[in-house]
Design a protein that fits this description.
3-stranded antiparallel sheet; HTH_MarR-typ (chains A, B); mainly alpha; DNA-binding (chains A, B); Arc Repressor Mutant, subunit A; transcription regulation (chains A, B); cytoplasm (chains A, B); homodimer; DNA-binding
Amino acid sequence: MTEKKYRDDDAVLKLENQLCFAVYACSREIIKRYRPHLDALGITYTQYITMMVLWEETTISAKVLGERLLLDSGTLTPLLKKLEKQGYITRQRSDEDERLLMITLTDAGQALKTSAAEIPYKIACDVGLELTEGIALREKLKQLTKDIREGNCEYSK
Amino acid sequence: MTEKKYRDDDAVLKLENQLCFAVYACSREIIKRYRPHLDALGITYTQYITMMVLWEETTISAKVLGERLLLDSGTLTPLLKKLEKQGYITRQRSDEDERLLMITLTDAGQALKTSAAEIPYKIACDVGLELTEGIALREKLKQLTKDIREGNCEYSK
DNA sequence: TTGAATTTAATTGCATACAACCAAATTAGC
DNA sequence: GCTAATTTGGTTGTATGCAATTAAATTCAA
């Protein structure tokens, strides 16, 4: 039983036992699957989820966009400039508050939605999860993300 | 019902409905939680999971290491050079096959494991999942990663 | 009302990720 | 044995991610 205890202590630092690595690896593999479909549209994965927010909102401040995507300005600023250069969005300061950078979907950006519409179906096929199972997994991950962000554990600062 | 159909079509491109974004966002938030603990050790998250494999194997080829971590040489090569510079590993060509770069844990690398041993417990506290629930989520993600990599769907190339 | 605190983007620096390409070593066929 | 194909790392270029800092605009407070 001493030996068993030894193995258990070691187990917490084994890669295969890490939830973090399971999430991290899965994320990268999923995004890799999107690439060929997104290459056809000329956008990256991060640009794709950014456009997704714009297809819902049409106009949104960079700050709120960052909150939705959980990305900060260091990531968003260059990404939004690229989307502007590609003609999918416009970037202009708010009249009421010059600090706010308002992002607006262009007609070309709206048109891109039509091209993107088939992607989720193609990916769903890859994933091979039942719809209800996929939804359950997604909601579990959302809850986990929320818990981690709120961090109600005093142990870790 | 026409209106309902319209809403359903739109739903597939909504950010909140994407499993990919749930995984992607969760991954980044988890890694963000690791940062303060890993900063104390002077390593990054990717270096941490790399060391995790070395703590199990002691010696491993760069190729097999990449297969374990699902990372390619473009990511691993500079990362391993940094770990070598920090004294945690050695990099040397195999005698039998000069193409193979053998990575070996040093004493300092082994010692680092002791410092890292508490991290999983601290993170587990943040995550706030029941053990069995965390295991279930982890295994679900592993299966999903496997399915995506194998990609038994002819629809997406 | 005016100087301090706050908010919001942008910038900088560092560390991934990964596709595409390249070079060296090895193996396979003939 | 010798050449072609394969294997394995390394390099390059592009695009994130994110902490830390800066700068401009706005709000708050005495």
